[in-house]
User: Fold these one by one.
Assistant:
Number 1:
Amino acid sequence: MVTQLAAEVIGGDEGQPAVERWHPLVRAVFRFGAVFLGIGMAGAWLAYALLRSFGLPQRMVTEVAEWTALHPLSDSVGYHVFGTRIDYTPTGSGDTAAQWVSIFTLLLVSVAATVVWSVLDRRRPNYSRLYEWFRLLLRAALVSALLLYGMVKLLPSQMSFSLDRLVEPFGDMSPMAVLWSQTSLSQPYEIALGAAEITAALLLVLPRTAGLGAVLAVIVTLQIFLLNLTFDVPVKIFSLQLLAYAVVLAAPHIFRIVTALVGGAVPFRSPESLRTTPRGNRILLVAQAVFGAWLLFTAITEGSDAWHSYGNARPHSPLYGIWDITDYTVAGQEMPPLVDYSESPNDNQMLSATVRLRRIIFDIPIGVTAQRMDDSLFSLPAQIDTDRHTLTLSKDLGHQLKIATLEYQQPQPNQLILAGQLGGRPVRMQLTRIDLERFPAVARGFHWMQPVPYFR
């Protein structure tokens, strides 16, 4: 598209083919894009993704990620320009101060590199072949990202169903929690989202289908970016990068599609060969296919691990369910089910024998979630011994800082009795398991025919 919109054809010597000369501004824009979007973003992500795919230790991968974020130059920019110290510790967020400062630093470096490149290479008429390599780099980065994120949706684990969302007040959820919850409630919808991302990625692998894959990738990444913006998901920077890759790759094809729709002639245009010989191009084509197959294999492996570890196929707690506390006594004294905000424990205390709980939710094997009378939720590491019928609650996953040790009995499948020491005081609770079918979000299902809208 660059050469179509901005090139001038220069006649060569007699018997020599004509050479396209790009407009100087187009050449400058390409140089900046190659450094900023290509090497700085797509290249850095691709290096990070490949290191992960080969199973390198996470510590080493994290160190490489710091260097691709232009550490320590970003540290200096953060301190002297923004007055902040950069912390590269992974937090699960892609929109940290470190990420924003590294993008700003990359922008400065890219501008400087573009100026130097333009001065040293000012006589080159075009970058037709380098442009195709640039597109190949964007394709590779986009394929790796779409396969990774698509697989954790195809095997639902990115938005996995959680029992505590059924009883958490809607107003207490963050916008991101709302998005995650509504997506997890419809497993077919999450699978469809993943299938769309994976389809776009697989089409992008080979040059013959890359155009169609790029157009589909624009649709997919645009939806991702809009959801991240409107539901405050902290992956805004990276999703915008993916959208930019897709737009650059799809732009020539979208231009041709629009031209055809308005009745214009769309002549066939083959891309510039990346290698100078047919044999070299065949080798490169095989390499692209092998690369795509490797990324697909690693995505399936990681997606399967995630699905079985914390996704919808994860193990359930032996006491799986949402349990209402119907009776609660401390040292033989009944604790009434009253909301008393003055006695609510602080964040450090979390659980107190003198504060009545409303529910206990058993979902994953290594933790529990409790709901106070004011409907607020908090979670604790837990260990359930099914042989000894004991429940241990702690402040840490290693259970070195124990909060409570309780014995449990199940007179009936939907009845539970917990008794033991909590905060040094004897407590006893009787619980009744809630039938999940009482929640319309779980029980409503799908209906082709509806006499009236079901909106409650």
Note: The first strand starts at residue 7 and ends at 10.
Number 2:
Amino acid sequence: MDSVDYHPRRDQLVYTFGGAAPVLRVKPGTALNLWSEDAFNNALTSVDDMSAEKVDLNFVNPQTGPFYVEGAEPGDTLVLHIAALRPARDYGASATIPFFGGLTGTDRTALLQDPLPDKTWIYQVDTARQTVGFSARYGDFELALPLEPMLGTVGVAPPGGEVRSSLVPERFGGNMDAPDVKAGTTVYLGINQPGALFSLGDGHYRQGEGEACGTAVEGAMHSTIIVELVKGGAPAWPRLETDGAWMAVGSSRPMEDSWRIGQVEMVRWLGELYGLHQMDAYQLLTQTALAPIANAVDANYSVVVKAPKALFPAASAYDGIHDELRRRSAELL
């Protein structure tokens, strides 16, 4: 398997999906060893740092990429298997930001209330114990939480020549902030532009479902990604596959539309997997689906709709490419 290492300089980071020239051309089957910067651009390194003073909102969620995949054309399916994620620093940062987050007034939910305090929390990473340490800002409470690395952003160039902020999740992927985008997961994205032009970033050392305050334990990340291509079959919205579930991600506002998108995409996928009539797939999904909230804070909200594989007969999505990539990943690592 071909392997490529890429560690961008700061001036090579991008902050959009679409609108940027590719940094590398890669062939399907390539393993990429990538480094990505944290969502704050490493501006928050101490509890004394405040986002209003340190974070430039024009340069948040920096992306590593985009990468041009040879042979990829609109209508094809980009397949990205996350073989490994490792923290690139021994600390991560989270923050409450005035008028941002799921439990405060925002510019879209206008309320007569004071903003939340601008506060930063630093989590120390213990790689030996595989934990991140929470320390209270308003007391003496401390807690070691399991390290659960994930990628907040992964996406392709949008259709129609659009350029979208790396803060936005949409049908091209983007800032979905889904905890299921972790090692062992295969991501399927519909390709809109020649070469796919995919990028990734916004590493989280852990995050609860919903990302309620608006920021996870944000950290720089080492990622090992296997790139593959399926000709045709582009999903309308991002799909995820793990050993235990098939998933679809919907991103919109209001949140019920995100849920609807994920449900409709999973109805389609179950129809493809089992040859089911739409109404039969709808009925079956109704009785089996899980629907965790990925984020309730981004420009669009994201909901993941899951079909647990254990409830269904064995089936192969995209000719079993997830199982093949899991095998290749094990050999690679």
Note: The CA atoms of residues 94 and 215 lie 6 Å apart.
Number 3:
Amino acid sequence: MALSRRRFVESLGAATATMLGGRLEAASQAPRPYVPPPPDPLAIRLDSNENPEAPSSAVSKAVVEALAQGNRYPRNAFDLAEALAKTHGVTRDNIFLGAGSGELLKAAVPAFVDAKRHLVSPVPTFNTCLTVARSLELPVREVPIDSRMLLDLAGIEAASAGAGLLYLCNPNNPTATLLPTKDIEGLLDRLAQRSPETVVILDEAYAHFVGTAEYRSLATRAASDPRLLVFRTFSKVYGLAGLRMGYAVGHPDTLKRLRLRTTSDFLAVTSVAAALAALGDDAVLKARISSNRDARALTVKEFETLGFTVFPSEANFILVDVRTPAAEFGAACRKEHVAIGRPFPGLTTQVRISIGTVDEMRRATAVFKRLLAPAA
């Protein structure tokens, strides 16, 4: 089964958390890898934060045309890097492509973390970096999110002294909550003075879905700041999860360290062509952002009408407190052919639900309402 970026390297990790004193406190335990359930061809797939829409006709056309160059090593990556540089207002030397941002995240850990310089990561979050660091037996410091499901920046700053790498996902996965960009920039400024060796990865996988003026990309800053890398993916709003395309924006010297740890020198000519076509299709991009907003609002309203807490979301998924064990609720949904996100450390009754089409969310919420009737 082809797994999306967000499920490829996910595991439950080495820590669970319990609510204590208004924040989630980590409790160490042996790692428990997440084993995905068998595929269900009938399922409404709301489990991996994928785009519910198939690639556009322009993308499909570009992929078919690129097949004619399948006998050659790809040369269109230069064009994609140029296009991305123009999009972000940087130079081509500030762009590094990867087979999904997942490949780049895996490469970042051995590039910047060693026995004396630890990894810092919130929990729960997208845990590729945590999983890789543990597998390599590298030091890790986890910082639990707070009771509002927000990243604990004060705790993260304290834990980052002397760190080799700090990973931040904003909006965060699985909570969907957002920190204002000015707060992230303040953290970066302070770390530059307090811990100048620390490299920060800012994962902007869900940037296109954010609808608040408090947020902006830090890609331009990353181009000139050797302590910052911004990661982006084509798996979400562009709907290319199965074609594996992502990229990093950063200072050339920092990208050089990352490049040495990647596993591939070439990307599939079809994937690059798909990304180029998707990047240039503004009408489809805007339509999918709007569709996500509408379907998300519908889903939030259904849950809130029943009296369940839905945490603020600036992404293509939501976090809902269903007031019943998350694993049990997920299993019950699967029996009804609705796949939702896996259980996450510390989220005992909160479940992550990806946003599908409006029709899919109407059908899925009917299932949710039926299963949650006793709790409601």
Note: The two ends are 36 Å apart (CA to CA).
